[in-house]
Automatic annotation (TrEMBL):
This protein's UniProt keywords: DNA-binding, Transcription, Transcription regulation
All copies of domain HTH lysR-type, residue ranges: 1-60
Record-linked PANTHER family: HCA OPERON TRANSCRIPTIONAL ACTIVATOR HCAR, TRANSCRIPTIONAL DUAL REGULATOR HCAR-RELATED
Protein name: LysR family transcriptional regulator
Lineage: Bacteria, Bacillati, Actinomycetota, Actinomycetes, Kitasatosporales
InterPro entries linked to this entry: LysR_HTH_N, LysR_subst-bd, WH-like_DNA-bd_sf, WH_DNA-bd_sf
Signal sequence segment: none
Entry similarity comment: Belongs to the LysR transcriptional regulatory family.
Length: 296
């Protein structure tokens, strides 16, 4: 069976609305042709995609999997068309940019401002995730460009451009006993409770924090865990934990928290922030955004 874009769109809209009438209205068609189209789709696949009742429709397990893949196909088709237009007609359209959490506080706003000024015809579609996931999304074509933190596996398969170095700093509640010091020896925090990044969601950063503490002679005591850096910082803002965070976050105006450099050299305190894209990309938008990124 040959799947058309229209068939996939109809099924995706129906799964979102979970009602034939609402889906038909969203697709600017009547309900009977939509119902017939979905039935043809199910016959062609040889599986039931939907469970129907008087209140609407719900997805079967096969339907849920097919809906996810159908959306991915539609996104890929849209991205391919947009990329072809950029290459053929100059830099315009949409570029999919992935960014790790630590770069969203200072670096990303500057980049967005410069892209708007220099490339007014280009829109950035932003995705935020951990470095490993963003790398994989670039490899599979789900992203055009990503700004990540090293170390991360799989970089040898991508074009890598180092942008700047980033350091861990200590975030302390404003009333902490060490808040008045110009810098903080990490070993002096051995008895403190730490707010830590979730190692499943942010594996690279979680390992960096753990290694830094281990090299300072202690295992950090877990006072709380969070899936993103802003939530890690929230524990410190509340005064219940200390935390180690990328230096970019120290540039924000955060009440009730003081940021201090960590005293003494350590390879675990430093990481490179890099831009990655596919090696074979001829996309002028990627090249021009990368040029702007490097200007920062």
């Amino acid at each position: 069976m040959e799947f058309t874009t229209r068939m996939l769109e109809q099924f995706v809209v129906l799964t979102r609305e979970q009602h034939f009438g609402r889906a038909a209205a969203a697709l600017s068609m009547t309900q009977p042709p939509l119902s017939q189209a979905i039935q043809r789709l199910e016959r062609g696949l040889g599986v039931d995609l939907l469970q129907r009742d008087a209140h609407g429709v719900s997805l079967t397990a096969a339907g849920a999997a097919f809906a996810e893949d159908a959306q991915r196909l539609l996104d890929a088709q849209s991205a391919a068309i947009d990329r072809a237009h950029r290459i053929a007609g100059g830099v315009e359209g949409t570029l999919r940019l992935g960014v790790v959490n630590s770069q969203s506080y200072s670096f990303l706003p500057k980049l967005l401002r410069r892209v708007a000024q220099r490339l007014p015809g280009l829109q950035l579609h932003l995705r935020q995730n951990n470095s490993a996931t963003l790398c994989e999304m670039v490899k599979t074509g789900s992203l055009d460009l990503a700004i990540i933190r090293t170390p991360v596996e799989g970089l040898e398969q991508l074009a890598v451009h180092e942008l700047h170095r980033e350091y861990l700093v200590v975030a302390l509640p404003e009333g902490h006993r060490l808040a008045g010091q110009a810098s903080v020896p990490l070993y002096e925090l051995a008895d403190d409770a730490f707010a830590l990044p979730n190692p499943v969601v942010m594996p690279t950063f979680a390992e960096q924090v753990r290694s830094a503490c281990l090299h300072a002679g202690f295992t950090p005591k877990i006072g709380g865990q969070a899936d993103d850096l802003q939530c890690v910082l929230s524990y410190t803002t509340a005064g219940v934990c200390v935390s180690l965070l990328p230096s970019q976050m120290g540039m924000t105006d955060t009440q009730h928290v003081v940021f201090r450099p960590i005293e003494g050299p350590s390879r675990d305190l430093e990481s490179a922030v890099v831009a990655v894209h596919r090696m074979d990309t001829p996309d002028p938008a990627v090249k021009q955004v990368l040029r702007i990124v490097k200007d920062d």
